[in-house]
TrEMBL record:
Membrane spanning residue stretches: 6-22, 29-48, 54-72, 84-107, 119-143, 163-191, 203-223
Presence of the UniProt keyword Transmembrane in the record: yes
A family per Pfam: DUF3307
The organism of origin for this protein: Oscillochloris trichoides DG-6
InterPro entries registered for this protein in UniProt: Phage_phiKZ_Orf197
Full protein name: DUF3307 domain-containing protein
Keyword Transmembrane on entry: yes
Amino acid sequence: MLYLFFLAHLVADFMLQPLWLIQRKRYWYGLLIHVGFVMVCMLAIIPFEPRAAALWPVMLGISVVHYGADHWKIAYGDRMVRSPLLAFLLDQVIHATTIIVGLSLVLPVEQIWSLDASALALPAIYAICYLLACFAAPITLIVAFDPTFKHASLAAAARVRSLIAAVLVLSLALFATPVALPATVAGIAAATRRPASGHPLDSPLGLMVVVLVAATLGAVLTLV
């Protein structure tokens, strides 16, 4: 069950959190919209895994803590943690820990962690890896290298390019392993010669980090 909840978190916190929503989270209504997405994504598990319907109190608790963690990050994070990246990572640790603790309070350990607990556990893990490579890694890089959104006008196109690179590398690692390494090296060499824009995601370092994350996740998935 953990993998389904973590997948729901990634969808809500990365796929469904565009720049306009991030900016409006400084106000109560923007934060409420975001937490509403978090709750809806967890409720969306129920049609695919009906047993999750009994976990609605856990979903509600996770949403409340999510609201509190995001409010803390926005209101006090800069004062308590100077690094925006550190505040961002701490926020994600809180969200992940909340999910684990919440499920641990109501489910046996084997139903939380075991791949046999749900037929959707393995597909969820694959989806999680794609979301980590295509959305979480690029957004983390933006927080690290462009926390004030100085290059916001270039971000949309840069994120599309990083998404395509991550999908290609991860898919090659999974389904065409023999050609994954040479294709990846060739792609990095071509891209670093002439960056597509001045956005940090298009820089050689940004591209290499995205590719490295995708390749690592692909290698891990081949062992699952």
